[in-house]
Amino acid sequence: MKALVTNIQRFSLTDGPGIRTTVFLQGCNMRCEWCHNPETIPMKPVELFYREKCIACGRCDDGCTAEARVMSSKEMSVEDVMREIRQDKRYYEESGGGVALSGGEPTLHADFAIALADACHKEGIKIAIETNMSLPWAHIEPVLRKMDFIMCDIKLNATVEHMKFTGVDNQTVFNSVGRTSKLGIPMIVRTPLVPGVTDSIENLKPIAEYIAKMDNIVRYELLNFNPLGGSKREALQKEDLSVEAKPLAKEKTDALLAALLEVKGLEVKVI
Amino acid sequence: MGKIKFINEYPADRVFSYDERIALLRTRKVEQTAEKAAAGGADEDDYGIVVQDEFKYTLKPNHPNGSIYGYKAWSENYCSILQQHPIYVDALDAFSAKGFFFLERLRPVGTKWNPDYSYPDLQAIFDRYQVISGIDNCHHFTPDIQIGFEKGWDGILSELKEERAKHDESHHEFYDAEIAVVENIIAFIRRAGEEIIALSKAERNFQLSENLRTMGEIDLRIAEAPPATFREAVQWCCWFSMISRTYNRGSAGGQLEDLLNPFYERDIAAGILNDEEAVFYLACLFLQDSRYWQLSGPDENDNDRTCHLSYLALEAADKLNIATNLTIRYHDKIDQKFFRKSVELLFKNKQGWPRYSSDKALMDGFMRCGYPKELARRRVAAGCHWMCIPGMEYTMNDTIKVNLAMVFEVAWNEMMALDGEKSAETLWTIYAKHLKIAVDATGRGVMHHLNYQTKSQPELILNLMQHGLVKKGVNITDGGANYYNICVDGAGIAVAADSFAAVEQRIDREKRMSYVQLQQHLDENYSGVDGERVRQMMLHSERYGGGDSLGDKWAVRISKLWTELVRDLVNQHAGDYRRVNFIPGLFSWSNTILLGSLLKATPNGRKAGEPINHGANPNGGFRADGSVTAMCNSIAAVQPGFGNTAPVQLEVDPQIANDEEGVDKMCAMIKGIMNSGNTLLNINIIDAKRILEADSDPSKFPDLVVRVTGFTAFFAMLSAKFRKLVVDRVKSVNPGACR
């Protein structure tokens, strides 16, 4: 069983409970302009060019030794990935962490995700998934059932806006999020705070109210804008996104938190 | 600049809380640090010394080269200093013990070692392999303050005189020197007491006047008698630290609870001390000197020794919040609330304290040397990367470094000069031969040092706090110690390991070039476009710290060989009457710049003259994600495992632990590091942006403290080169941990 892996990030502290190793897979069905991992969107490996690393040797065809030109992903087997994962087993145990499967959209690689989850569980390692929940429930349910923790995004409440900025309808997302209750797997719902797109209380509050009724929700996380995607877009030699590429100021995130306090029974946190 | 008496600075009727006094003393400390930085700074520990203009001492040499050697000269010069040394007094402070300089540094440059005992043959080997031999270095072992607490200066003096009477003339030079030193210490502390009492009468503020009077009275008592109260015991520590530093920078400290808790509990029970006062006294202790203290850890029955005083020590350090060298000894049964509190303070203050040692790894290692558990447990953190049993060991800790990267260079040059097969394995065979030559010479250097150090610099102060030494009547290097556990450190392991890995990967396996071609690029320091292209290829080979990489494999191989060779020195010198043990470690201290400066370009893509890696850490850029766990696993795998350390030097972004959950994760991280075989964690919590701003203008950040290597220092005190060491580490580690 193999998949295209764009990155394996050890000592990840923001991808679920505890200390985790995050496995990023290539390919996503959404087209979010603000994506901080834009190189993971295409289904095939793409070339990234990091200008600041280029030594201008003029011998690109011989292979770049400076790693200025790199491919976004490489094919790895479950065992290849496990070799990296098991090195930090001690830290998962100490922290209540484990693996986080991310992307791209990892449920596009359902068989790989299930095989990796089985391999982790066989070695006593817990696994979480970061998913956009937009694929059909019948497709994602077998994957989610294998997970110990779910993190999913609801980016926009308005259907039209969601389609506009992600290229995907959000009704499936809401429906699938709602159906996770019956799985009994703890879940964090997240919304990336994209200035001028997702960061209004009008967008966030309905999402908060929707998930507040569910009994498997650990909390609602607001992911402050991550400008890292800008440098990656540059490396992909694409134009940067139109939204203002700066994280929200603390005053703004504090105001959002205060407004969301009105939603009862829901913990909200800015990351 | 240089003021040493702070009297009548406040109105007569002002009343100070303890917290106000700590805050004012901290401000004074920051100002004095700025003065030290203006006077040239220093790339080392703070030591609590004060720059002043009032007193300068001119050495009275006993050798034509202008230096001093042997018991008599050291004793006479030291006593002369004590007779003239002005008393530093601050009416806000609880204690009165500040020094201004070290006698050992008044000697002319290049005259530390007695030239009558030169070692040209060994020096030639040291030069070839860039061995810092430790010959001529002083202190770097730990006194047991408890001896002073039990005997007092008068008791020590009496014992010296009694033992002198029992010994023959061959010991009289030792006793005469020590007796003169102790008599002058007593006179000095008594003079301080008298002067401070006189000043108390001049101080207009009633509260501060009373403080000075008490301070002076305590000095008069403990000039001779053992300390009887918590405040007296802490004052005793301060005096010992000052007189020891003034002699030869000698260290002190120890297990804080063992030393001070009996006084604390007694005074609390007697109703003559409360927690607020205890915290103030501890803050003043940490202010007086940046000496190393260990907190927590297990007792002799494996139970946690954390007590209320442990918490008060953290509280005092928090209130003072300057360069404080506190080490938490982590073990399975540690008071979790205390451990978490320490992590919270680490992230709250971002001043590089505390740091953490692993009881299990240290115990297991030291017991492999043949020592019982009881002794292993008494070995406490007392220096940058080192442990020592107070009052029992002579160690030369952190003074001996063998440049593993320079040994690689010598081996490489030899292989390239030979006609035979060239490969990583051939290179390894030659490397092993040269490393043995370097290590064996280092061992002979240690014995030379032990044999003749008394003729250069006897340890007249630290000798006094050694168990049984006064009865023996000899200097600590001449059999005065109970145990000789000599610390021998390898430096530059990452440069050597990455160089082996790059050669194996790029030449032997991938056939990307020949050895001759690489030699040419090394000779040309990777110059030109082709050179840079090759350098980048070597730089991006599988590196130490990568996790199960070729570099990791080579690092383990080097560490195992290093450990075997250093341990073999025990057999080579088994006949010596001191029964000398040699313990391997991996640490560079701040010699990364020095040891890299003479090293040519290396196959790992490092250019000529660039620093070697820090301690046991991988080279910068070891992984794209800079994973802390990958790095710590790699360092755990190269631990020599005999009770000395190969520390983890870790730079962490403060945002990682900006809430409860973040602190939980950091607690888990530290536990993981401690439980994975690692011995010591030196940790900095530094915002990359802040450190870059401070580097461009250190004066804007006068109270920024960083853990440079094992020691913490005010960033503004460091030279540009040493600041760069810290800045480069901060920039290279953990870029992907935070969104």
Structure characterization notes:
The complex is a heterodimer of chains A (271) and B (739). With 271 residues, chain A is an alpha/beta fold. Helices cover 31% and strands 22% of the residues of chain A. Chain A has a single domain (2-43, 75-270), classed as Alpha-Beta Barrel (TIM Barrel), CATH 3.20.20. Chain A has helices spanning 78-85, 89-95, 110-122, 137-145, 159-166, 171-179, 201-212, 228-235, 250-260; strands at 2-12, 20-25, 47-49, 69-71, 74-77, 98-102, 127-131, 149-153, 187-193, 217-224, 268-270. Chain A has a nine-stranded mixed sheet. In chain A, strands 3-4 form a two-stranded antiparallel ribbon. In chain A, helix 4 links the parallel strand 7 and strand 8 (149-153). In chain B, strands 4-5-6-7-15-14 form a six-stranded mixed sheet. The longest helix of chain B has 33 residues, at 424-456. Among the domains of chain B are: 1-112 and 146-252, no CATH class; 401-646, no CATH class. With 739 residues, chain B is of the alpha/beta class. Chain B starts with a strand and ends in a 7-residue tail after the last helix. Mean pLDDT of chain B is 95; it is low at 734-739. The interface between A and B is medium-sized, with 35 and 34 residues.
What's this model, at a glance?
The complex is a heterodimer of chains A (271) and B (739). With 271 residues, chain A is α/β, with parallel strands linked by helices.
